[in-house]
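Data deposition worksheet. Section B asks for the primary sequence of the deposited chain exactly as it was used as input, without tags or linkers unless they were present during the calculation. Section C holds the resulting structure in C-alpha cell form. Section D is free text for depositor observations; keep each observation to a single sentence. Incomplete worksheets are returned to the depositor.
Section A, Depositor: J.P.
Section B:
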Amino acid sequence: MENRVRVVRPHGPAATDREIKAGIQNAYFESPDVDSSEVGVQVSKGTARLDGEVDSYWTKMQAEDIASGVGGVKRVENKIDVKPLQVTTDEYILEEIEQAFDNNPHISADDIKVTVEDGVVTLSGTVETWAAFNDAQEIASHVAGVTEVANDLVIGEMEDTAWYWNQT
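Section C:
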C-alpha cells in the first residue's frame, strides 16, 4: 500500500536531510520495536530511504511508521528485506492467520480470502468496518514467516446500515 500523503512544514526553517536522518536514527535507537543496527537510513530532499534486513514484516512496517513520524520527512521508501528467523511453510502461515481471524470479534472470516505464496500474504474480499480492515492487516503482519502483506480488502457497507437508510 503506497502512502500518498504529502507533509508540509507550517513554519520555521526546513529540517536538513542530515537532521532528518539523525532524527530517524534516534527514533530507532529509542524504539523497542526496531533494532537501529538492522536498518540503514538515507535522506534526500526529505525522502527517507530505508534498507537493511529485519526478521519480521511487522518490524519492517514499524520502521516505516517511525520514520514517517519524524519531522521533515515528506516520503518514505521502504526497501527493507524481511528474512524470518524461523522457517515456516505457507500452510502454517495460512492456518495461523485463519485461526486468528476466527478468534477476532471484528472479522467475519468467511468474508476474507487469504492466500500465501512464499511468505507473501494476500488478503482479498469485503469487510464491514475499518476495524476489520486494520485487524486483518495487523494479524497477517504478526504471523511468523510473513515477508509481505498485500491488503486488497474492500470496506463495504453493512447490510443492516443499508436497510436503515432505505427505511428513512
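Section D:
The first helix runs from residue 17 to 30.
The CA atoms of residues 23 and 70 lie 6 Å apart.
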